[in-house]
From TrEMBL:
Record-given protein name: ABC transporter substrate-binding protein
Domain of life of the organism encoding this protein: Bacteria
Gene3D superfamilies the UniProt entry points to: Periplasmic binding protein-like II
Signal recorded as keyword: yes
Span of the signal peptide: 1-22
Annotated InterPro entries: Ferric-bd
Ligase in keyword set: no
């Protein structure tokens, strides 16, 4: 009897330990399983090291995992379209400005959310659209389209100051700009000029500009890198591309043209994402000082007035250069203009 009692005790003890181990294993798996809703999935075309830094800062502050999925803007949009029935992302951040976000509104892949800190913003401030009028995206930083130049090959005085200056014969064979058929950066350049001058004058302008270029790469950042390497004197691109290279010791500087597109780079909540509350918290975070400082450290222009830009550019000194963009016209003509680029300029 004593032996039976001992065996029964050992059996109960062993069974209890197995249950405890199983519960412990399940608990650990639940805490690390990204599909449980605890993790936040971020889709972004921005520099991978930048988005990684943002994710790590959020994890440090809030103790919630952020998984970053990097790809080009068009790739991400196509992926979100393919995932509409089973969305995998919670937040989409960045895309070279507002144009991809504007076109995404009618595609049913993003939904409405504006962080509390941006609720009182005007939709358009100083000629710059800061957020979507129906709350489908909010700006996190500013991008300026302009001219990079190699300071060893071009002086500040002779550098172009307007878009028309690029047609000066002295720049023939010395300019690069991205391919508007492939790059959103360049599409913005084309659409902006046509909105101001009309399509007929616009196509004539770009036909001349294309004849001045020694290369028209598909990548939006490639022309600025070519300037840094001395392969071009002048490049069309965004401001941060030049200032980041400058900070790394390259002989590059940047000119803000007299009238040019100045856009917010937005973030948005993905429709039907697996962790909407986490997505909202991450969007809130992007406007907080900690995240804005990271953007500033990467030479982006922060939108939070408490954070100082590390470049000569800020919201206040850019307002007179901002050109008014007719977003409805952009949405109606974006794909057509891109598709017509090669036939109209060759």
């Amino acid at each position: 009897m004593k032996r039976f009692t001992t065996l029964l005790f050992l059996f109960v003890l062993a069974f209890g330990m197995l249950v405890a181990c199983a519960e412990d294993t399940d608990g650990q798996a639940g805490s690390g399983d990204d599909s449980s809703g605890g993790a936040i999935t971020l889709y972004s075309p921005e520099t991978p090291d930048l988005t990684k830094e943002l994710a790590e800062k959020y994890e440090e502050l809030y103790g919630e995992k952020v998984n970053v999925h990097y790809a080009g803007t068009n790739v991400l949009v196509n992926q979100m379209m393919a995932e509409k029935e089973n969305p995998q992302a919670d937040v989409w951040y960045g895309g070279g400005g507002i144009l991809p976000f504007e076109s995404a509104v009618d595609r049913g892949i993003i939904t409405q959310y504006i962080p509390e800190s941006a609720k009182d913003w005007e939709v358009v401030e100083n000629g710059i659209k800061m957020k979507h009028e129906d709350g489908y995206y909010v700006g996190t930083e500013l991008f300026v389209l302009g001219f990079s130049y190699n300071t060893e090959l071009v002086s500040e005085e002779e550098a172009p100051k307007t878009w028309e200056d690029l047609l000066d014969p002295k720049w023939e064979g010395k300019i690069q700009f991205p391919n508007p058929a492939a790059s959103g950066t360049a599409t913005l350049m084309v659409l902006s000029y046509m909105m101001q001058h009309g399509e007929e004058e616009g196509w004539e302008y770009f036909k001349q500009l294309a004849s001045h270029a020694n290369s028209v790469p598909d990548s939006g950042s490639a022309p600025t890198k070519a300037v840094a390497m001395g392969e071009a004197h002048i490049a069309v691109g965004f401001d941060f591309m030049a200032y980041e290279l400058q900070a790394n010791g390259e002989t590059v500087d940047f000119i803000v043209p007299d009238k040019t597109p100045i856009l917010v780079n937005p973030a948005t909540l993905v429709e039907g994402g697996p962790n909407p509350e986490g997505g909202k918290k991450f969007m809130d975070f992007l406007l907080e000082e900690e995240a804005q400082q990271i953007l500033a450290d990467w030479y982006h222009i922060p939108i939070n007035p408490e954070v100082e830009s590390k470049t000569p550019l800020n919201v206040e000194n850019l307002k007179d250069n901002a050109v008014d963009l007719d977003i409805d016209w952009v949405n109606e003509n974006y794909d057509r203009i891109r598709n017509e680029w090669n036939s109209k300029t060759n």
